[in-house]
Amino acid sequence: xxxxxxxxxxxxxxxxxxxxxLLGLSGQPLRAATPSQGGTLRIGIGSFDSGETLDPQVTxxxxxxxLQWQIRNNLIEIGAGGVLVPELATxxxxxxxxxxxxxxxxxxxxxxxxxTMDADxxxxxxxxxxxxxxxxxxxxxxxxxxxxxxxAPDEVTITLNGPNAGFPPIMALTNLTIVPADDSNFDxxxxxxxxxxxxxxxxxxxxxxxxxxxxxxxxxHFDSVQMLAIRDVNARTTALxxxxxxxxxxxxxxxxxxxxxxPGIDLIxxxxxxxxAFSMIATDPxxxxxxxxKAMKLSINRQDMVDxxxxxxxxxxxxxxxxxxxxxxxxxxxxxxxxPEQAKSLLKAAGAEGLTTTxxxxxxxxxGAVDAAQLFSEHAAAAGIKIEVSREPEDGYWSNIWxxxxxxxxxxxxxxxxxxxxxxAYSREALGGYNATNWDNDAFNVALTAARxxxxxxxxxxxxxxxxxxxxxxxxxxxxxxxxxxxxxxxxVSTGDAISGDWDLDGNRCAERWWFTA
Length: 518
Description:
Radius of gyration: 22 Å
CATH class of the largest domain: Alpha Beta
Number of domains: 2
Number of strands: 22
Number of helices: 15
CATH architecture of the largest domain: 3-Layer(aba) Sandwich
Largest sheet: 8 strands, mixed
Shape: globular
Strand order of the largest sheet: 1-13-20-12-2-11-10-9
Distance between the termini: 36 Å
Structural class: alpha+beta
CATH topology of the largest domain: D-Maltodextrin-Binding Protein, domain 2
Helix content: 10-25%
């Protein structure tokens, strides 16, 4: 199954934006034709937590996502353009009613400890995320599984509790990496991945070395990879400029143009599914009335956000997560415009005139989130809404603020398909998990469930379109902008021909996909 490829991924050197042949300052191609081997790739990562572990159930930050995919693999990989690529599974197919999925496994793949991977390892790894005792962030998504069995040494059969045409991408989630059966010492870092764990200091750094027995012959070109946890974007940028690191994520949009003009540095701009958001918990008394939620959406100047927060590296969004990068994007939803007078009218009808609230933010969810929150506060004042911005600590933001406070800054990087994105963040199944707005809408849940079992493409498109419209109108998410991923690298680092747009740093798999120019 493949997904929409109407996204763009461009690699920018000075003056190279929009060029068909992408050139750096020297006029030489930014990518080497043939990958070279060797060297240590040093990456600066801005999203991390000092309390993280290598337990795949709780893979949250960008640091941990990168590290997990350095040392471990999934059954399925998400390639550039959102294409599903066989990884530890060589193929998968469903029965006629889409309730049973059978995965054939790759043979001869070894874990770092020398154990040969088999179906029992896959069953164990999937079951980590199932059941009452699981602490997995993907628990709500694998709740669709009623049974998982090793039906042969190289075959796993998964039975669902209902039809689901979009099930396979669940096996590509960062949490769903494959680990050895019956081994819960996750911090040992054992996996089948491109690199072997040498050092991991949460909130500080990680070091991995090349796996000499890696089964992907065309990947893992570096001898080793070192990641440094560098929260401050200016510090990451300085580290790249001075040669202390070779690549970084989350470039500050306000300085991206200057960075791209510097000799020896390339800005990687990737348009995809990421959206910045301010989220309201829909069950909180302040936001329980849908008219109040709608008023908040009409109280933000989206173009101002694009201009001042993104510096033009993005576009206006419409309070729902399915962008044009998805196959079933609904283009017919009326765009929410900045309309303070209508917002005032809605608040008056809801008995909430002069609404006062606190917006909790840090720059952890996205670079510039605190400035964006302050800008929103200025916009909302015209509607008689007083938003007090509370700047929260960076460390622990996801565990202490996100989904805990009534009104908070957020970011979503998108998922492989519509069902994953909508199910993970907004469905009834995800309440108590990633459904941080606690929004529960009957019509939405009915349409989402129906879409999973619908084989007719036009009908499925209509159902996902209905979900998007309901979420935009009634949901607790204020999503004003689509933000391009902005990463940067040394010109000494080469990439493949296409960059993944599902996450930054080439889908958080740059360590496996990139190489040094010879």
